[in-house]
């Protein structure tokens, strides 16, 4: 695989500076305006480069977001397959996909990022990810009655971030050491109820 | 009401220093050894004062813990009444008591403390509170089959801290603005399932 370095013999010096500048601007714009309201073009303009260069370095907007918050995977790699899962299996599929990921090496970086974002004043990156990406991807599938999708998804998010907190940050025992499958199966019916159950105030 | 200040005319100078020294030592010992394994006597000894003075300033060990982590209420004021609630009502009673508290002025201080504890490397104070106080108070009531109590309580904790995160720290909308009663009633059946339901891996 050829790297951008080799391909662009005539590029200006300071490629890694440029990448870093794009990431800094991306983080700032995503935080200020949300993922949905931030375009690759705006990030490119703020970074004084061409949109094509941003795509070349980082791929899609979601991939750029992942790079900006140091998530070492494309969020849509998880969220894409979720589109294919039958609605009534979402409650189990969601934690079954996420927990092994969080438990992995990859997850360690994500947990560290989550923690530093929580520590800072600026949690807008997480909020935007949950509201713009998860709500759009999953919320639209469970929007019954109409308008309930975002609320359903946010209850799901509350349980999932709570698991992250209890298992990886507070490190409660025995919770921290329970098998992934046990946690996934324990929370699955509750997640499923949030997604497709009759919830107070939604009808 | 007479303050300690007025009562102890002959006290050595630097009363507020003494109080602060006790709090610092309490925080350190609670964090290092947990609440259960820390005695008022040990805190008094570390602070070079008499146990009676610690009780005089702060009351019970739980009240001292609350003061040390800036929770402006006695945790047992919440947990005490929970002992009287029928088991099958715990799932609704727990969030119905906690959410108005978190929403209040009092709660703002608690959320700020939680956040700074999460930001620091040392989450052992929260962990100890959940494991030593909540698990003992509530876990013992739902320990069926025997040994399952702490796990049940930790699943409950995962949902409750997730609500705190979503509502007060991430401030997701509309979650942040939902009426307390709607959140309490929405999560109640899920909490109840964690407390008294058939859970995978526990039988």
UniProtKB/TrEMBL annotation, chains A, B:
Highest rank taxon of the organism: Bacteria
Signal peptide (UniProt feature, chain positions): none
DNA-binding region: 39-58
Pfam family, one: TetR_C_16
Keyword terms: DNA-binding
Residue ranges of domain HTH tetR-type in the record: 16-76
GO molecular function per UniProt: DNA-binding transcription factor activity; transcription cis-regulatory region binding
Designated name of the protein: TetR/AcrR family transcriptional regulator
Source taxonomy: Bacteria, Bacillati, Actinomycetota, Actinomycetes, Mycobacteriales
């Amino acid at each position: 695989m050829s790297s951008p370095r080799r391909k662009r013999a005539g590029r200006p010096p300071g490629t890694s500076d440029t990448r870093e500048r794009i990431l800094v601007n991306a983080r700032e714009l995503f935080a200020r305006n949300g993922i949905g309201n931030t375009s690759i073009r705006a990030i490119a303009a703020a970074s004084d480069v061409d949109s094509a260069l941003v795509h070349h370095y980082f791929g899609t907007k979601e991939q750029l977001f992942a790079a900006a918050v140091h998530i070492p995977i494309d969020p849509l790699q998880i969220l894409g397959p979720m589109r294919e899962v039958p609605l009534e299996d979402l409650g189990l599929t969601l934690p079954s996909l996420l927990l092994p990921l969080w438990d992995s090496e990859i997850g360690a970086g994500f947990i560290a990022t989550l923690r530093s974002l929580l520590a800072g004043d600026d949690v807008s990156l997480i909020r935007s990810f949950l509201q713009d990406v998860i709500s759009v991807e999953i919320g639209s599938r469970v929007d019954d009655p109409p308008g309930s999708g975002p609320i359903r998804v946010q209850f799901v998010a509350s349980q999932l971030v709570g698991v992250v907190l209890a298992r990886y940050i507070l490190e409660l025992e025995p919770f921290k050491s329970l098998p992934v499958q046990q946690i996934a199966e324990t929370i699955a019916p509750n997640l499923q109820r949030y997604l497709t159950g009759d919830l107070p105030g939604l009808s």
